[in-house]
Design brief:
The chain is mainly alpha-helical and 136 residues long. The chain has a domain of 91 residues. Helices cover 37% and strands 6% of the residues. It is built from five helices and four strands. The strands form two sheets. Strands 1-2 form a two-stranded antiparallel ribbon. The chain has a two-stranded antiparallel ribbon with strand order 3-4. This is Fungal-type protein kinase domain-containing protein. It comes from Coprinellus micaceus (Glistening ink-cap mushroom).
Length: 136
């Protein structure tokens, strides 16, 4: 997010931050509008795999820091694979991450991450430089 008055970037959702000394908070302790870590306001394609479950959608899984790290990695993969020189690449990969179902999104992105981990995802720039085109 960009702050036009300050002419510099600023953190999004910082208003949701809440300093606490307890490791677990329940709604009764923070009030109905206080943070519990159970929010579902996320962009699915960047949401941690564990949070794309039916249990998480029902508010049964608490969001923790590792979920934010996984989401950050998903954003990096998305940017590296889909953009070049600030523009969306023609025939850009990862369109399959965009789904109407959180479970389908989880499955499709999970497959991409598995391919990356196994060295089988050839849409990353490092693979294209080393091995040629992804379609070759």
């Amino acid at each position: 997010m960009w702050d036009p008055a300050m002419q510099r970037p600023k953190l999004c959702d910082f208003d949701l931050a809440y300093p606490c000394k307890k490791t677990r908070l329940v709604v009764e302790e923070v009030g109905p509008s206080g943070p519990t870590g159970l929010s579902k306001n996320r962009t699915w394609i960047f949401t941690a795999k564990e949070l794309l479950s039916d249990a998480a959608m029902a508010g049964e899984v608490k969001c923790v820091y590792r979920h934010d790290v996984e989401a950050f990695v998903a954003v990096l993969v998305w940017i590296v694979c889909r953009y070049q020189d600030g523009k969306v690449k023609a025939n850009s990969p990862l369109e399959h991450w965009i789904q109407r179902s959180h479970l389908e999104c989880r499955k499709k992105r999970g497959r991409t991450f598995d391919q990356i981990a196994m060295g089988e995802f050839h849409n990353l720039p490092v693979f294209r430089r080393r091995y040629g085109s992804a379609s070759a």
